TrEMBL record:
It comes from Roseiconus nitratireducens. It comes from the Bacteria. Residues 55-174 form the PurM-like N-terminal domain. CDD domains: HypE. This is Hydrogenase expression/formation protein HypE.
Length: 361
């Protein structure tokens, strides 16, 4: 006879974490991504800076050439790769996405983005005209964000081996001495803020790829967040943490924060800003907006008494018009995110186990 524990395991098995081959889900930004980093990369490369798992490393190069985190003159350093399909989509393209993604990782760390590098892996046969469009888009995105692309590299792979173009961008920025943003800083009583509607980018990519049309036109939210971040930090220097919820969406960002800060997070479902078209698409396709990627939004954790004044400041910025307080940090259920609905029910918002939408960024 099967006992209750055995029955539970049979109907709701824990996803395997010991895969011997790379899966698409390892690039989801969710549970499998975290497992890959924890099992493969951190054991070999782990150090104080890398193990913090911030969006951008904060460090200083001292005269001995050693990276440290505790000196006054600090830089932010980050890198990211972009493999989106299709390459061009409403609101942007892979080039704009590459610039914005790296600028935003620097910005949400509290740094002023300054310089980028770009490495291009091109597939043999890729046409020059779309490549020129992508490069031009990157130049325009750099100008809008106030950064300079100062170095790069180009490689070409055999036809059929590269899916047209992959781009890797690396960014450097500078920190102000009085800023110390980190996913390890959240405290019970803090509020959780999102800068605008969620899920726009992921649903735009999916609908473009699959040829799905909606009554309301959807566009990616890809945008450089450094101007909004600067306005937020000027208005509220006590912001604890910021992150941009890209792969894995709001769910992954908040789960990472809850684990790093050893706190619980309670979200208010009614407060989540979701465009009607995105909400309808998610319902139709069986997706959860909390797990869908964003490319021009940020999550901020702030002391509770500073949340509403900060939201008012954010709403005066073009990229923060739909900013909202969506939850709070609690001491209960540490390392767990819970969503409460209007009638008092709740569910756990766990890390994405697999890949909802492949090739979105």
């Amino acid at each position: 006879m099967t006992n209750a524990a055995d029955f539970d395991r049979s109907v709701c098995p824990t996803p395997r974490q010991d895969h011997e081959r790379v899966l698409l889900g390892h690039g989801s930004g969710g549970r499998l991504s975290a497992d890959l980093v924890g099992r493969v990369f951190l054991p070999e490369f782990g150090n104080e800076v890398l193990s913090a798992l911030e969006d951008a490393a904060t460090l200083t190069i001292d005269p001995r050439g050693e990276a440290t985190r505790d000196q006054a003159n600090r830089i932010a350093f980050t890198t990211d790769s972009f493999v989106v399909k299709p390459l061009f989509f409403p609101g942007g393209d892979i080039g704009k996405l590459a610039v914005h993604g790296t600028v935003n990782d620097l910005a949400v760390s509290g740094a002023q983005p300054l310089y980028l590098s770009a490495a291009f892996i091109l597939e043999e046969g890729f046409q020059i005209d779309p490549l020129r469009r992508i490069v031009r888009s990157m130049r325009q995105a750099c100008a809008a964000a106030g950064v300079a692309l100062v170095t790069g590299d180009t490689k070409v792979v055999d036809r059929g081996k590269g899916d047209q173009i992959f781009i890797t961008t690396t960014g450097i920025g500078v920190h102000r001495v009085d800023r110390d943003l980190s996913i390890h800083n959240a405290r019970p009583g803090d509020a959780v803020i999102v800068s605008g509607t969620i899920g726009d980018h992921g649903i735009t990519i999916m609908s473009t790829r699959e040829g799905i049309e909606f009554e309301t036109a959807l566009e990616s939210d890809t945008a450089p967040l450094n101007g909004l971040v600067e306005a937020m930090l000027e208005a509220c220097p006590t912001i604890r943490a910021m992150r941009d919820p890209t792969r894995g969406g709001v769910s992954s960002t908040l789960n990472e924060l809850a684990v790093a800060s050893h706190v619980g997070i309670v979200l208010d479902e009614a407060s989540l800003p979701v465009k009607p078209a995105v909400h309808s698409a998610c319902e139709m396709l069986g997706l959860d907006p909390l797990y869908v990627a964003n490319e021009g939004k940020l999550i901020a954790v702030v002391p509770g008494d500073r949340a509403e004044p900060l939201v008012e400041v954010m709403r005066r910025h073009p990229l923060g018009r739909d900013a909202a307080v969506i939850g709070r940090v609690v001491s209960e259920h540490p390392a767990m995110v819970v969503l409460r609905n209007a009638i008092g029910g709740q569910r756990v918002v766990s890390l994405l186990a697999g890949e909802q939408l492949p090739r979105i960024c």
